[in-house]
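Please review this one:
***
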Amino acid sequence: MPNEGAAVPIGLAVYCAHAGDRNALAMAGAMSVGAALSRRLHVPVKTIGTPAAVLHAGWQAELAAAMPDMLELAQHLDDLFRRKQAPLLVLSRCAAALATLPVVARHRPDACVVWFDAHGDLNTPQTSPSGYLGGMALAGPAGLWDSGFGNGLPLASIVLVGARDLDPAEQALVETGLLRLIPPKDDCLAQLRTALGGRTAYVHLDCDVLEPGIVPTDYRVSGGFSLAELHALCEVLAEVEVAGLEIAEFENAWPGNGAPASPDALLDALEPLIARLGAPARGA
């Protein structure tokens, strides 16, 4: 249910188990982001799962390996909503959203899901060119395939922000007009404000929505947002109620030299959104 005039506490959780990983850097990265958020917000962090060896398997094996921990993630998110806490989740990979978004759809059917990602993640096992589980992360909750975690998220409630590398089936779906795409162009702030239309937002951020080289992440697609642009987009999101935020795909080290990476600059850019999290709806 929507907030009723008072701020609610933030429930911070980190998912750091299997999620179709191609390397182990995002499991450690999720823990790094969670620890940084805990220090900033002075809230405890709940850890779900344990980092494990990468499987390098097909989507079915990856899903089976992730299932127990992702079910725990779904249950924890359900508990946060039931306790009237604002979810702040850090996910190793986007595939974990297969478990989170059906819970969001059930508890906050009024919310649109604002999906920041260089990709659409709207493939199914039948349409995916690669069979990568993360590329199906949004399609499962939208009911385009049966992941085992449920669905319930209408396509009309999805706003893709920053997507610029769509596979053919995803592009065809966008062209139907059933969901909204906001590419990383000069008018993206106005487009986002229009797409929101004052609705409550649940926000998913894949770090590859940023220009490559800003933070380490697995996929690198040119033409992404700067941190300043991300900050400005978060200010637009802060104009509406924010039902939850999940941050995914931050790797804790740079490729090549393995130098450690700090999430601080990313969290600075997200500050308007994080500050809005848990605040009451305007006029409540």
Summary: The chain has eight helices and eight strands. Residues 71 and 99 are 7 Å apart (CA to CA).
